[in-house]
Amino acid sequence: MSRTFSTENKNLPKLNDPKLFRQTAYVDGKWVPAESGAKFSVTDPSTEQEIGKVPEMNAEDIKTAAILANEAFNDWSKQTAKRRHDLLKKWHALILENQNDLATILTLENGKPLKEALGEIKYGASFIEWFAEEAVRVYGDVIPSPASNQRLIVIKQPVGVVGLITPWNFPNAMITRKAGAALAAGCTVIVKPGAETPLSALVLAELADRAGIPKGVFNVVTTHENVQQVGEELCTNPIIKKISFTGSTAVGKLLMKQSASTLKKVTLELGGNAPFIIFDDADIDAAVDGAIQSKFRASGQTCICANRIYVQSSILAEFACRLAEKVGSFKLGNGLESDSTHGPLINRKAVEKVKQHVEDAVAKGAEIIIGGIHRSGNFFEPTVLNGMTQDMLISSEETFGPVAALYKFETEEEVIGFANATSSGLAGYFYSGDVRRCWRLAEALEVGMVGINTGAISNCEAPFGGIKESGVGREGSKYGIEDYLNIKYINFGGL
């Protein structure tokens, strides 16, 4: 595919539209530096080489952005739903029109294979389209009144300025899933993307600008060293009325505590420790494919990926063999190389956590069937472990890496206990050919989302979110716009 791209870094791949590669923040419809003038580097996790620099913003920058976003809210919230719909549809069309360039930028800063990055761009765009169509379906109610001279009406209004704090693992889709709902509802947003992947946020800002979304409605601020003060400002600034965060449970708890100072609305999508259960009446080939789809997408760096794979004892050996055979066909490499099926982990810290989990499991009796090797840099071989037990770190911690950990179980009752023995409750999966068991398990698993005979559960039409310590609120679906709206009751009397 022919691309033309010119920046100071001549080692970067070529883009069709070089103007999509932005290295300044976007506030109030303008491309701006940090007030301090400071910048930080963005690196390619495959090569660990710098690919650009973006502003190192601080709390003062956020205060300015909040004031400007609030000014924009006064007009945006009064626009008709049809007007917001039309602008979001234009944004959606521009994202798809430039999807190859967006995927290239995403791969550069995140590392996932280009094909997978392109899939994320399309997935992310689907949320903009979905919420454009939800914008014109924010309905209220008329309540039968107990008094003949009164009419009781319920309307829904946008909450105001919203702070969106998004992660690096899905640097496009985690923004569109939040911003699509917020803008459709009539809110304005300040996006603080993951420090590892700010360029994907900035290209969305460029396309929002081209779509005609008014200044101050969609803002992107970037930071790395000042992330704690920026996060605190977003949570405590009284102008900002809601926080939506995707990331670790520990950070989510801190943001929720800080947001309590102004009683903000919060939506938190936090860590997971997903069980993936295979019963002996399951289609083993389908279960292997589903486990690979769930576990190894984004090199295991997803919050809903299978973290603990429970296999009924009578089929464990066969399942392990087939899974290892498939994993052995993977090609680990730079995401920009056409034959790479899996890319690097995001950084050395992520590599160290994966190494720790594998070494802990082996020390406690697990067997490495395939993989288990840290090659170089941020590359860790896709791994299958067998003989896992409940006292291993993987049983209680989210690995966030390419390690399929296999546990043996005997009975349905036993595996439900294993699956629910965690403070997390985001997603759970199981494979079975028994319809009655499917209903029992779906209801028994303590999670917000269940996949039955499938390893892929995410789409814009369905609600995404967890229970327990995996968060509060839902994103996507018809429910996703509700957290960006206030319910107002009107009693019209004297009739």
Structure description:
The chain has 495 residues and is of the alpha/beta class. A seven-stranded mixed β-sheet has the order 14-17-18-13-12-19-20, sandwiched between helices. Strands 9-8-7-10-11-21 form a six-stranded mixed β-sheet, with helices on both faces. The protein has 14 helices and 22 strands. Belongs to the aldehyde dehydrogenase family. It comes from Paraglomus brasilianum. InterPro entries: Ald_DH/histidinol_DH, Ald_DH_C, Ald_DH_CS_CYS, Ald_DH_CS_GLU, Ald_DH_N, Aldehyde_DH_dom, Aldehyde_DH_Superfamily, Succ_semiAld_DH.
Short account of what is shown:
The protein is α/β, with parallel strands linked by helices. The chain has helices at 59-76, 81-97, 99-110, 114-135, 173-185, 199-211, 227-236, 249-259, 284-296, 316-327, 348-363, 393-396, 412-420, 435-444; strands spanning 25-27, 30-32, 39-44, 49-55, 141-143, 151-158, 161-165, 188-192, 218-220, 240-246, 265-269, 274-278, 306-312, 367-370, 374-376, 379-380, 383-388, 403-409, 427-431, 449-452, 471-472, 485-492. It contains 14 helices and 22 strands.
List keywords for this structure.
495 residues, alpha/beta, 7-stranded mixed β-sheet, 36% helix, disordered N terminus
Rounded radius of gyration (Å)? 23 Å
* Mass-distribution shape: globular
Number of helices: 14
* Uncertain segments: 1-8
- Strand tally is 22
Portion of residues in beta strands equals 15-25%
The strands making up the biggest β-sheet line up spatially as 14-17-18-13-12-19-20
Mean pLDDT, to the nearest integer, reads 96
| N-C termini distance | 68 Å
Oligomerization state: single chain
Q: What helical percentage do the residues reach? A: 25-40%
Largest sheet: 7 strands, mixed
Counting helices, strands and paired strands, the structural category is alpha/beta
Organism: Paraglomus brasilianum
Keywords: Oxidoreductase
Enzyme class: oxidoreductase
Domain Aldehyde dehydrogenase: 31-490
